[in-house]
Amino acid sequence: MSELKVIEKTKSPISKTDLVEDLKALGLSPGDSVMVHVSLAKIGWIIGGERTLIEALMTVISEEGTLVMPSQTGNLSDPAMWENPPVPVEWVEKIKAHMPAYDPLKTPAYGIGRVAEYFRTYPGVKRSSHPRSAFAAWGKKAEAILHPHHPGHAFDEESPLHRMYHADFKLLMIGTHYDTLTALHYAESLVATKKSEKELYYVNTQAGAKIRYVWDYHYSTETFQGCGRAFEKEQTLHKGMVGQADSRLISMREIIDFAERYMTTHSIN
Q1: What are phi and psi of 209, to 5 degrees?
Q2: What are phi and psi for residue 190, nearest 5 degrees?
Q3: What span, in angstroms and rounded, lies between the C-alpha atoms of 168 and 130?
C-alpha cells in the first residue's frame, strides 16, 4: 500500500504514546518476551514509522523483556526454484556462483517487510546464524534465544523457536494473519516424520563463499489459517487494536500445543 493510501485511510496521525497505550491495553507488559509479526500499513500513518513502532514495543516490555522478529533471507536459496518472480533458466548458474554468503550483520532481511528489516539494524539487536531462516532479537534473553541456529535446523528442536517455546514467549500479530505466524513451523517439526527437503545454503568458509546442501523438514503454511481459526474457537486470547490494525496477543506455548494436535490430523507432510 502506498504512503498516500495509508494517509487517506488514517483518521489521525499515530504517535508513540498512542502505540504504547494500545499495546498495554492488548496485554503486553514489562518483562514480557514476545515475537512480533506486523503489517505497518494496517496500523495507519505513524509519526516516525517503523522506528516509532519498535521503540514503542521496547518501551512497553522494558529492558527486562525480549523482542524477537523473523529476519529471513529467502533469496539466499536455489534460483532454479524461484517463483515470485522466477528468473531465466540461463541465469541460474551465474547467480549460484556469485551470490554473497549469509552474513548476520550485512545481509538484509528479504520479503518480510520494512519493520523486520529496520529492527535487524537497530542498535543492540542481535541476529542468529541460520543462512536463510534467521531471527533477530533485542533484550534480556536475546543471546540465549538466538544461538545456536545451524543449517538444517530452521524451526525444529535445535532452533530459536524451541527455546522461545520453553521461555514462555508471547506471539503478537499486528494486522497480520495466521499464515504469517512463523512459530507454527515449530509445531510442524514436532509432527513431521523425517527431514525430506534438500536445502541449498550460501555459507562463508575459509576459502570464501560456498554452496552447502543440508536436509531439513518440508515446511509449509498451508495448514496455518485453519489451525488459527480452530485455535480461536477453543482458546482464550487477547484481541484489540494497535492503531487501526486488528491485533492478537497469544501464548506461544498454548498455540504450539494446540497446533501439534491439529497438525497431527491435518498435516500435509
Answers
A1: -70, 130
A2: -75, -25
A3: 22
Which grid coordinates belong to 143? Answer: 543471546
Which pLDDT belongs to residue 267?
64
The domain limits of the chain are 3-266
Closest by CA to 180, choosing from 112, 261, 129, 259, is 112
Residue type, 235: Q
Is-contact 58 123, C-beta < 8 A?
Answer: no
Q: Which three cell numbers, joined as nine digits, stand for 250?
A: 497469544
Angle among Cα 121, 154, 259 to the nearest 5 degrees reads 110
pTM above the 0.90 mark? yes
pLDDT tens for residues 20-67?
Answer: 999 999 999 999 999 999 999 999 999 999 999 999 999 999 999 999
**Helix, strand or coil, per DSSP, at residue 167:** coil
